[in-house]
Every structure is written in C-alpha cells, then in structure tokens.
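hey can u run this one w/ iron/sulfur cluster bound, need the structure tokens asap thx
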Amino acid sequence: MTSKRFVLTFPPDATGEPITYNLIKKFDIMVNIVRADVSPGKIGHLVMEMTAPAKVLNDGMAYIRQQKVECEPIEKKISYREDLCIHCGACSAVCFAGALTMDHNTAELSFDPGKCVICELCLKSCPLKLFSIDIG
Ligand code: SF4
Ligand code: SF4
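ok here u go:
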C-alpha cells in the first residue's frame, strides 16, 4: 500500500463527475480529503490523500486527468526567508490552504508546512520575493 497526497485543480467548467466517489467505488482507493476549496463556475482546489497499491494509484491519477482535472502529487516543499519577513500579510491573504496565517496577538506571520498544498500563490504575492520551492 502507498499513501500519497495530491492537489487536484478543477477547471471552472468541470464535468461534475463524482470523482472521489468513483475513486473509492471503482478503484477501491482509500480517500482522505485534507482540504477543499471548490465552488461552481470557479477554479477549485482539492487536497486529498489517496491510499492504494502503487499501480492502482496510477490508474486513479489517470482517471482524474481523463476528467480534465489536474492531479499533481505533492513532492515539492515551500520555504521562505523568515529572517527577512516584514509581516505585511500579503502571502497569508492568498493562502487559501491556511498554511500561512497572521498571528493576531503578535501581528507576525506563522507558517504550517503541513497545511501547504504547493499552489505557489505565495511566491507571486510576497513583495520581497521571500518564498522559494525545494523539489525533492
Ligand atoms: S504554496 Fe504558499 S500560498 Fe500555497 S498553500 Fe503553500 S504556503 Fe499557502
Ligand atoms: S508577503 Fe513576504 S514579507 Fe509579507 S508576510 Fe508574507 S513572507 Fe513576509
């Protein structure tokens, strides 16, 4: 059995196919939704963990992509230059996953890598370009 996290990106005109239901019923994949941000007519993101034998996971990914939904395994890591941060909050405003948040008591930025879905929005949002991606 292999467990892996994936980010699914749904186009605004997604087919409405019950993807997670089919992954469970047709492929016998264990699915754990970590984060969902999906609204009709908009680009949506879903972070989920899938558990199954490696070949079945590959079949599941192929099925998702057949539905014109992007499906990328989370293999990258986001980091930022904490020492140079001015705590402006621009990155936390775009981080829909809740990995970057402003602490209301200290007015400082806080980063929880466990919630990061590698959407890369923070890279573009930081005026000081403090974010980078590590692949590995
Ligand atoms: S890549 Fe950046 S904006 Fe996206 S989830 Fe991770 S920390 Fe948040
Ligand atoms: S956008 Fe850059 S400078 Fe502003 S809080 Fe985020 S990391 Fe810090």
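The two ends are 21 Å apart (CA to CA). anyway lmk if its weird
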